[in-house]
Design brief:
Elements: H1 2-19, H2 24-136, H3 140-274, H4 278-329, E1 347-350, E2 353-354, E3 365-366, E4 369-372, E5 378-380, E6 385-393, E7 397-403, E8 408-418, E9 425-426, E10 431-435, E11 445-452, E12 455-457
Antiparallel strand pairs: 1-4, 2-3, 4-11, 5-10, 6-7, 6-9, 7-8, 8-10, 8-11, 11-12
Helix pairs in contact: 1-2, 1-3, 1-4, 2-3, 3-4
Length: about 475
């Protein structure tokens, strides 16, 4: 609406100057309106710049908080990895201990069965064995030695059984300790996983908030660029008006000078005529009057010619201003409204939505698509826009965010390097980064997201 008013105003200024030199009131009124419009636009630009500064500060705070969350998530991830490794070792030790316990129990049982067999045999032989010893013994010493031998065999069996029993008890104690250690490790791991899930929820919320801020930053940049274009257009209109006013002033000055010269010439002629004879004086006066009339007509004609020249010049200047404004509005960074494939080749290796987490720390809620491509492959801006973020996080790796206006934002993650900077206007298809495997990644690929008003949507609907 404001642009239409400016174009109408520009045409009206040129047309009014062509028609007549006697309409300074309209020109002054138009100039005042343009000056007021410029003042309003400058105020609007200042407000947008203040808003942008606030958004940048909010973005910095949010990114700082996200960085802290990222560090906490990394620490939790490392702790889960350590506990998992320790738990695996404990389970392996427990399995070996349980195997050793089974062997000890078997040995104890075998020894116990052997002892029972010997005792049973000795019992069954009863007094016969002892009688044979008495009958065959030559003296009491032989009898005592035989009895001592039998006693020693019994003591050896008892000691062996006792040693086996102690070994079994030690292994059972170790087994109980390992079971307790395993339970404690599992409990710690569960706590860390719950903490990781809680931190991830906060991280997701903050990432969404950051997406909204980045969208607003993009809109603020668009507003500033648009306002600056309108300011330039109004400045050109004001320059045209002032130029036409200067032409009017010069034409009026010339007219006054010509009138003054004609008046002086008439006065000089009158004086000369008065000094002559009375008869010729009357004739000279008439001639002088005719000459004055002629001079006045010449002055009027000259003024009309100046007015025409002024009007022609003003029209040309006005046309140039309009062309300049149009060129400004079609500069780089303008969104086309449709996306292109954001990578030089590649294929979708993981789609949008729920999936099995590909690596520790990666989310199972996939908020974009993965495009598998060789490391160093060029990454393109899916559409024209303004770069609002270039950063790094443990999860995303190197990443870049482009705002396309109207709440539409694209995100490119796991880059090996970035080829654009914050605040830079980029055109559709421009190289902004290169494929890598930074952050939580299992191989070289581009993780590509599309956000609408702070909410991630399926990129497949846009490319």
């Amino acid at each position: 609406m404001q642009r239409r008013f400016l174009r109408t105003l520009k045409a009206a200024v040129a047309f009014s100057l062509v028609l007549s030199m006697s309409v300074p009131t309209f020109a002054a009124s138009s100039k005042a309106e343009v000056q007021q419009t410029l003042e309003d636009l400058e105020n609007q630009k200042a407000q947008l710049q203040n808003r942008l500064a606030q958004l940048q500060a909010n973005k910095a705070d949010t990114e700082s908080y996200i960085a802290e969350l990222d560090q906490e998530l990394t620490a939790v991830y490392d702790e889960i990895t350590r506990l998992t490794s320790e738990l695996d070792q404990t389970e392996a030790d427990l399995a070996q201990t349980q195997a050793d316990l089974e062997v000890a129990k078997e040995k104890e049982a075998e020894q116990y069965e052997a002892l029972k067999a010997r005792i049973r045999a000795m019992y069954e032989s009863g007094d016969t064995t002892m009688m044979e010893i008495f009958m065959q013994a030559e003296d009491i010493s032989t009898i005592l030695n035989a009895n001592e031998y039998i006693s020693r065999i019994s003591d050896y069996d008892n000691q062996l059984l006792q040693a086996l029993n102690e070994t079994r008890q030690q292994i059972e104690t170790l087994e109980a300790q390992l079971e307790e250690q395993k339970a404690e490790l599992e409990n710690l791991k569960t706590q860390e996983e719950a903490k990781q899930e809680e931190l991830q929820l906060v991280m997701d919320a903050k990432q969404a908030e950051l997406g909204e801020i980045e969208g607003s930053i993009g809109d603020a940049y668009d507003g500033i660029y648009s306002t600056e274009a309108e300011i330039k257009e109004n400045e050109q209109i004001l320059a045209d008006i002032e130029y036409q006013e200067e032409l009017q002033r010069q034409a009026e000055l010339k007219r006054q000078q010509e009138e003054e010269a004609a008046k002086k010439a008439a006065e000089e002629a009158a004086k000369k005529e008065q000094s002559g004879s009375s008869g010729s004086s009357s004739s000279g006066s008439s001639s002088s009057s005719d000459k004055g009339s002629s001079s006045s007509g010449s002055s009027s004609s000259s003024g009309s010619s100046s007015s025409g020249s002024s009007s022609s010049s003003g029209s040309g200047s006005s046309s140039g201003s309009s062309s300049s404004g149009s060129g400004s509005s079609s500069s780089g960074g303008t969104a086309t409204g449709s996306f292109i494939w954001p990578c030089a080749g590649g294929y979708i290796s993981s789609g949008f939505g729920y999936r099995q987490s590909p690596t520790a720390g990666a989310s199972s809620n996939h908020r974009g698509i993965d495009i598998a491509a060789g490391s160093g492959t060029a990454i393109y801006a899916a559409d024209g826009g303004v770069v609002t973020t270039v950063s790094y996080s443990a999860a995303r790796g190197n990443y870049i965010v482009v705002s396309h206006g109207n709440g539409l934002t694209t995100l490119y993650q796991h880059c090996s390097s970035i080829a654009a900077s914050v605040g830079q206007s980029v055109s559709q298809g421009q190289t902004i980064a290169y494929v890598g495997s930074t952050g939580y990644s299992t191989g070289a690929h581009l993780h590509f997201e599309v956000w609408v008003n702070g909410t991630p949507v399926n990129p497949a609907n846009y490319i």
